[in-house]
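@channel anyone free to eyeball this complex?
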Amino acid sequence: MSKITLALLLSSLGWAQDARQIVGEVQSRAKASSQRYEGWLKVVDGRDRVTEKRWVYERIGSAGDSKVVLRFTAPAEVKGVALLIVNHPDRASDQWMWTPALQRDRRIAFQDRSTRFFGTDFSFEDLEERDVSQYDYRVLGEENVDGAACWKIESAPKKTKSSQYSRSLLWVDKARYVFVRIEAYRDSKLVRRIRYSDYEQVQKIWTPMSMEVEDTARKSRTILRTEKLEYNVPVKEEAFTLQALRRDS
Amino acid sequence: MIELRAVSKRFDGKRSVTALDGVDLSIAKGEMVSIVGPSGSGKSTLLNLIGGLDHPSSGDLLIDGASLVHVSDDELTRVRRDKIGFIFQFFNLLPTLSCLENVSLPLHLRGWNRKQINERARELLDLVQLGKRLEHLPEELSGGERQRVAIARALSVYPPILLADEPTGNLDSQTGAEILRLIRDLQTRLNATILIVTHDMGVAESCRRTIRLRDGRIVEDIRREDIRREDIRR
Amino acid sequence: MMLLKLLTWPYVRKHKLRTCLTIAGIALGVVIFVGMRTANDSVLYGFQQTVDRIAGKAQLQVTSSEAGFPEEILEKVQSAVEVDVAVPVIEATAATGLAGQGNLLILGVDMTGDRSLREYDLEEGEQSVIDDPLVFLAQPDSIMVSRDFAVRNGLTTGGKLALDTMDGPKQFTVRGVMKPGGLASAFGGNLAIMDIYATQKVFGRGRMFDRIDISLKLEVSVERGKAALEKILGPGLQVDPPSSRGKQFESISRLFSIGASLNSLFALMIGLFIIYNTFSIAVAQRRSEIGILRSLGASRGQIRGLFVLESAVLGLIGSLVGVVFGLLLARGMAGYLSNFLGEVYGVAQKTESVAADPRLLLFAVLTGILTSIVAAWIPARDASQVDPVKALHKGGYEMFSERENRLRRMLALAFGAAALALLFSGGTAGPRLYGGYLCVLAAAVLLTPSLVRRVVALLRPAMKWLLPVEGSLAADSLVQSPRRTSATVAAVMLAVALVVGLGGVANASYSSIHDWMTAALNPDLFVGSSESLTDRSFRFPASMGEEIRRMEGVEDVQIVRTTRVLYDGAPVMLVATSLESLARRIHPKVVAGDPSTMYRLAGEGKGVIVADNLALLHRLKLGDMLELPTPTGMLRLPVIGITIDYSDQQGAFLLDRTLVVRYWKDDTANLFRVYLQKGVTPAEGKRRILERFGGQRRLFVMTNEQVRTYIMKVTDQWFGLTYMQIFVAVLVAVLGIVNSLTVSITDRRRELGVLQAVGALRRQVRQAIWMEAAGIGLVSIILGLALGGVILFYYLGIIREDLAGLRLEYQYPFNIALLLIPTMLGAALVSSIAPAESAVRASLVEALEYE
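replying in thread with the prediction:
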């Protein structure tokens, strides 16, 4: 065994605990009892064709135990379509979709999480929030990203079947404890790259106002800009049910 | 009665064969003529043409003054059925019909009524001395008897012309002589014109006239004025 | 082989027509066999292909027969640890309203998950429709079609396509065009994809799915997955690989398959006689040639070998010709069969190409050759026994020896006895009916020579009276050549018998169906969701029935839900309605059970009334416990009544509709039986219903009269095949008679020559030959009509006990018999025209020349 491998092994062992704490700190700093924003989504495909969507996002709860309602507002053909996502700390989320023209909801099946979220470069899984405890973490080192000093952390799902990714690389800003970049791998292949930017402090929480996802295989990008972002807004638990989804549309 | 003018018959096949080559011949009513010649000399062809079984390639052929050339098959048949009776070497009786039925056949074909047919057929079979074998089938008869049935059939309408192709060729000489005598007898009784194709010189010589053919031409036309009855009876 | 070239070829060349007819004899049987079977296989293949293409990567499918099941089942399936992907599917067919396009198979899928199983390969630049199905899902008028379909109908993305829906014709928007191949080629390209929930709405399916397609986790075998899912889902739902769907279909097409086999057997037997005939004659005609060969040192074996080889070559040529024409026939038949199955069974399939199974073709060719050899065996043996010395003698060699006759009669008797013994053996349908059937055929064929002689002897005076010379000559010609005559008669007799048998079945079916319609189909109006009563793609909510009931002029409404459920492996029709109401209205023939109580009990859900044909096919008796799989578990009910009911060829159950609502969770209906008050005409009632619902719902109101006409039309389609066989029978008759007469004329050239020499006119010769043909025709008809009566008995038995369970009454089809007499006599006369002409045109000189 070479010295280099041995060194790597030792270093990763030494940082293991730290990594988990770092990611935990990222989550706890972003913690808010609820959230609301208007999203503006732009998909640029491999041939530079652009499609746009807009939605209103509401969330209650946090850190893997939250519920999200996402309502599309544009383009006109999809206006009123709504998604209800119920995140669980210990397992994959449940997702329902409401289509107003049919006046009915549908469950989006668990096994389809790896499919792209309505033509964006997000997969359904990417939209979920997961509890820190579902992953193993270790710090791989430190790197500068966009001029900010970052930890480079590797995360891997504890239950390999629960995710489409076999591992992810996370870059966490040392100063603000926010994700700056994420790279998700399937086996050893890079599948998605997410860049966060335009950080603003909203109600003391450092929040990226722009997020860009790149699907490396398709060479397409999705840019999500958040507007009118608020934390801890007064939302009611009842608004995050299928009944509410039907009623409010 | 029978008139041939420059009658020729060619068979067109891979090799064109001239069976008759410009034959002129005239046979008067009541004559009994034998036709002799080696195989392939045109004897049977001549008989077939006269019998209206075949058309000549050229020349004219008149039966009772009416031409057989350029007439339809059905008209030919009418001439045949009214004027001509056939006697074949192999009798050509229909094996499933009785003597009476075989003799009745031409009369039925002519649309006679049953009573008339029955009378005539019996009469004819009496004439050939088979009056007692009316219901027998051909296979139950001897060769001579069969030929007599065939003769009775040929005579059914008392045709003015009787054509016989080797009538004794398939019979022993004794029976042959009997048949020949019968034919001769009929000729005198009915005053029929009779043509006999034969190989048998005895048969030939029993006729008043003999025509010898070779290579489709008449090479000899012998008339005998005096034929002794003994010759015929031989 | 050299012998064959030296001796056979010149003979064949000389008898071209006869050789052709002989080849046609074998070809005919092979054509029917290959044609019908290949058509059947092609339809099956087309169905399987549609299933496969639609199934995509699915390894297992969950179904509840045709009935469908509640949506909740999906979550159960998805929760199974063995399952990787499970997606719901609805299949429906809808009329496109486009000229010449027929039905469109609509596949309702859940686009958010379906791509894991099926590949949607869209035209360039449209893939985003799939990637971003948001618009597709948000707009229920979204539809994707195949490029084939789009091109045929000038559709492009964004174009509009009208489809009949529950709410009347509706415009759909093409939001994607699929590239050819794979899924898009299913159902002949007449395929459209819709969102499954939109499909539910458009077709009135409520919250039901037809199917769940499943792919299993990598490490799970199909068997294990199936077992696990069956355990989770219980017995009411079937879990099977897509390939097994063909099996159900096979049970439907089995009728055709068996029919095809029986008929090709018949055709081959007919061919056998034609060949036997030809060879007998050839041997007779070549007797002197055989004699010369024998005297030159040919052994008996060599002579026999020569003829057997000849027959094998003829058989081969005939079979090959048969295969070619059979495949052509299959092309036509497949379309017919495919339409029929689509219409009556609602089986979504399209036959795109003829699927010829090489093994089937090989089998057909071998059968053809074997038949030919078997047919030539006896003549070949006769040939080998030719005595070289006697060969040149002319004589009655055509006659059967007394010994042979006796042997035939004994064998016939044995077969007859065997048939009787089998009949009373009480065994299963197999040996008793199929075996008996074969024995009867064998006996009839063996008896033919003796019967022919007798019947001709009877006919001779009549023929003689009619035309003294021609008549008796013709009759004698028939008797004189017993081999030639009886072989032809046997062939034509079989053809006639076949027609009588099939016609009898058709007759009996029509009359039974008529009786049943009178007893059971008595509502004034039928309100259905499609023009065809059998289409169950569209469904109504039951509440609509109540609305109709409240309408003015309506006295009563029976809400009917029909569907197919799997019983004992067969897709059986389930008819559910209010039995209490039904009992007041209909008076079907009750086979078993107490008519006064059974409807009441069944109405209370305490039992089931089964159709007689179902009872016969599945050996159900009164009191038997019936187990029906339902999505919520097994439904166990006793059989409390058996009635005559022709709702379906596979059989039908009559249940109270409350049970369907309870066990199938299905409150839809596809038919309302409407009784009008006195004084309201059906036309008036129809107008009112159309006025009330026509604008908002897709519905078809049919009067009693129209429904009857429709059922008769379906029945006609069923028997369309029968009519084709009648045509074939006539063809066989013509073929056989032409062959026989051609030979007869050759044989009797001399005789015919003599006839003309002694003064027969052409007309008279012709008449003699016509009489002979008429004689063959008449004898064949007489024997065939008799044999047909027996065959019919067996057919009805087979149908009753093995194929359809229909208790058809035996009734001799006199109408068909009456129709057959002029038809077959006419056919006989027509077939004698050419031989008669050739006879009168033949050279008299040649005819009279000796040998």
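from a first look: DSSP finds eight helices and ten strands in chain B.
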